[in-house]
Amino acid sequence: PPLLDPAVVRPDFPVLAREVHGKPLVYLDSANTGQKPRAVIEAVDAYYSQYNANVARAVHALGEEATTAYEGARDTLAKFLGANSRDELVFTSGTTHAINLVAYSYALPRLQPGDSILVTTMEHHANIVPWQLVCERTGATLKVAPINEAGELLVERFVELLTPDVKLAAFTHVSNVLGTINPVRELAKACRERGIASLIDGSQAAPHLPLDVKSIGCDFYAVTGHKMAGPTGTGVLWARAEHLEAMPPFFGGGDMIRKVRFSGTVFADPPHKFEAGTPNIAGFIGLGAAAEYLSGLGMARIDATEHALLEYATDALKQVPGLRIFGEAAHKAAVISFLIDGVQSHDMATMLDLEGVAVRSGHHCAHPLMDFYGVPATARASMAFYNTREEIDRFVEALTKVRKLLA
Ligand code: PMP
């Protein structure tokens, strides 16, 4: 597909016009959280300024307008993810909430001593810690599928580890640290053939790749709204309808019931039985607008645009003496983790900030992955379709300056 023109898309993002420390902002931290287009900001504003009301409870005009917009967002997101039905989408506060929901409602009741959950070395803590918590409660254990130096999952090893004790395999679609794009269809198929449930952490995939959960063939797919141009505090758990039918609710409260008696409660149908209490209405209306915005640009075009940017940035960074890139997978999203010999990543990020360049430094919520590479932290530049080559040039220039000062 033809690449997106930054001159056309950048004006959609008001924050990109600002300056930081007197320099034009170069935002290279989209894997941390994505910037929001005006369409999203305006959708949130319109809800609060024109039809703020609670959803599903009121019969008055504002309540109906709010409910229509909120449930309309579910339709938009169902289409965005390639779901069979809107009822397969549970609104959550983010990926973290989505994975915990599966851990407690799906995995916990099924796990016994001797069972296992399989994860990979490259998981975010959000896809490790919930499993550890349910393992601790049930006597199950966590197994880990290894990666190679380039940051690619060893698929054969992953498949070998899918033994009958494994009740669920949880793996990321795209690594937030390395950018590695995992062969999720192949992995989900291997799980399915062995009757093992699969959960995919789609946090870093949803903003960048065309998605179709049906064709991936997994059981659960989690996304977080704020990384895909939407508001913070929003996320979606997509799950096969039969799982949502069978799973008990995680939270109890209003809006998730059909009938409450002190002798017992009849729950609402999915997805509502997992959505207790007043939700983040404005957030999900904004997330619907975000999905529409991204679809309007075209996910295949976004993917191609970012891939070109990744190649440009990788080539430029390789010219910086003493710079080591972590993650050189053959299939990679626009994320580059790196270190420069003799320079602390936090010092580097702080100095880059003075040049207006925003990158993240730290362990990226992936301690086991840092341990694998034997480093405490890395710096990470993560790009989106709204970044330009000129920004990459400014980043590399700033980095060269920082290196001279610190190395
Ligand atoms: N998984 C991955 C791969 C991520 O990058 C992140 C966010 N850094 C998360 C999970 C957690 O997302 P959230 O904090 O929005 O729930």
From TrEMBL:
Keyword terms of this UniProt record: Lyase, Pyridoxal phosphate, Transferase
Catalysed conversion reaction: (sulfur carrier)-H + L-cysteine = (sulfur carrier)-SH + L-alanine
Name this polypeptide is given: Cysteine desulfurase
Biological process terms in GO annotation: cysteine metabolic process
Organism of origin: Oleiagrimonas soli
MF terms (GO), sorted A to Z: cysteine desulfurase activity; lyase activity; pyridoxal phosphate binding
Transferase listed as a keyword: yes
Family: Belongs to the class-V pyridoxal-phosphate-dependent aminotransferase family. Csd subfamily.
InterPro entries given in the database record: Aminotrans_V_dom, Aminotrans_V_PyrdxlP_BS, Cys_dSase_SufS, Cysteine_dSase, PyrdxlP-dep_Trfase, PyrdxlP-dep_Trfase_major, PyrdxlP-dep_Trfase_small
Keyword match Transferase: yes
Stored NCBIfam families: sufS
TM regions (residue ranges): none
Chain ranges of the Aminotransferase class V domain: 26-395
Pfam families: Aminotran_5
EC number: 2.8.1.7
Function statement: Catalyzes the removal of elemental sulfur and selenium atoms from L-cysteine, L-cystine, L-selenocysteine, and L-selenocystine to produce L-alanine.
Cofactors, names only: pyridoxal 5'-phosphate
